[in-house]
Amino acid sequence: MNGRERILLTFQGGIPDKVPVFEQSVAGAVVSEILGRSALGFASDVHYHEAQSRLAGASAYEDFIGRWKEDYAAFVRALDMDMVAAPWFLWETPVRRLDEFAFLYRNEDGEYVRSYEPRSQTFSLARAECGVNTNALRAKIRKTLREDNGQNYDGGYWALLKWLIEIFGNERCVAGASFFAIPMRADWLMLLLEDAGLVREYLDFVAERDVDAIRKQAEMGVRVFNGGGDLAANSGPLYSPALFREVALPGLKKIIASAHSRDGFYIFRTDGNIRAMEDLLFEEAGADAYGEIDIDAGMDLIELRRRRPQLVLWGGLACGSLLLNGAEREIVNEARRLRNALRSGGRWIFASSNTLLPGTNTRGYLAALREVRQ
């Protein structure tokens, strides 16, 4: 049984020969440690390298993409991952470099700065707007609804997806992309309270574009769609289930129905504690799988299995606590506990809870991987 067969059987409710594995985000430091050489990762830190190469010109950017492909393929084979996916790239070119770590960007909304933080190895917005300006957001949404050209993903995404299918499609499952969420920003959350109808109109528009993207990816051979979007914190959802049902559920149902109509499966990913949203996401919307399961927010996989025996669970080891601070023995013991509870029922894809972060106990993680796959 190869990785593609293993993943699809897992989604179909069968019991594969061994637990499938898929990591969506791994820091370059972890990739380098596992490969035993300097390598690019596919977490936030890769955006720093992306920015440098884009600013240096087309040839440098082409070299960056080539190096990333080489490193990703080597990592996939080193872990024998059963599923692969295109990375989260920014697909933006900076206007200029401000210093060693900071880059100035510009778009229709104005200028902003992204900066690399060497200690955390993240590349993120260096400063945010002061105050909450929902009027500006309203104007932007209305302009988008009026003028958008319907392009859902950068052309670079489609090129990488095609490459993944060509390189891995016969032996491993290639996951497609989907994203559907109310942005976790103060202006969006305030607008949700002030004008839920406009947010609903925007999300319906996003859903139509995502349905088209799912169609295009399915025509390329994609069966699994790595979708969803963050909607919760450790304490619970950032807005009520009633608001979600009114504003977001109709669009999400369309997206998932589109995947199902093409013999596909949909993963809903979100951090945080989503206990109050489970019925909406996995029964009413019909998502087939749950990813980015936030163990540190109280989302326990074994309890989830008891509540939702038909749901595919993708995750297992808390990336922000156990994998950073746990000893190898503790990590392996947790992997064994999960394997003993989940393996016999299938519908489980092993992974970290979100990202293999810088500082991950790599030896412990690899030992856990061996334990799960016994």
What do you see in this structure?
- This protein is α/β, with parallel strands linked by helices.
- The protein has a single domain, classed as Alpha-Beta Barrel (TIM Barrel), CATH 3.20.20.210.
- It contains 15 helices and 13 strands.
- Strands 1-6-7-10-11-12-13 form a seven-stranded parallel beta sheet. Strands 2-3-4-5 form a four-stranded antiparallel beta sheet, covered by helices on one side.
- Helix 8 runs parallel beside helix 10.
- It is globular.
- 41% of the residues are buried.
What's the helix and strand layout?
Elements: H1 3-11, H2 28-35, H3 46-56, H4 58-79, E1 83-85, E2 96-97, E3 102-107, E4 110-117, E5 122-125, H5 134-147, H6 155-168, E6 173-177, H7 186-194, H8 196-219, E7 224-228, E8 232-233, E9 236-237, H9 241-247, H10 249-261, E10 265-269, H11 278-284, E11 289-291, H12 301-307, E12 312-317, H13 322-325, H14 328-342, E13 348-352, H15 362-372
Parallel strand pairs: 1-6, 6-7, 7-10, 10-11, 11-12, 12-13
Antiparallel strand pairs: 2-3, 3-4, 4-5, 8-9
Helix pairs in contact: 3-4, 5-8, 7-8, 8-10, 14-15
Q: Helical percent range? A: 40-55%
Number of structurally distinct domains: 1
The H/E string reads: HHHHEEEEEHHEHHEEEHHEHEHEHHEH
- What is the averaged pLDDT score? 96
**Span between termini:** 15 Å
For the sheet with most strands, the description reads: 7 strands, parallel
Given this structure, which CATH class is correct? Answer: Alpha Beta
The counted number of beta strands is 13
Classify the beta-strand content into a percent band: 5-15%
The stretches of 5 or more residues where confidence is low (pLDDT under 50) are none
- CA radius of gyration is 20 Å
CATH topology: TIM Barrel
The oligomeric status of these chains comes to single chain
Kindly name the structural category. alpha/beta
CATH-derived architecture: Alpha-Beta Barrel
Given the C-alpha coordinates, what overall shape results? globular
Strand order of the largest sheet: 1-6-7-10-11-12-13
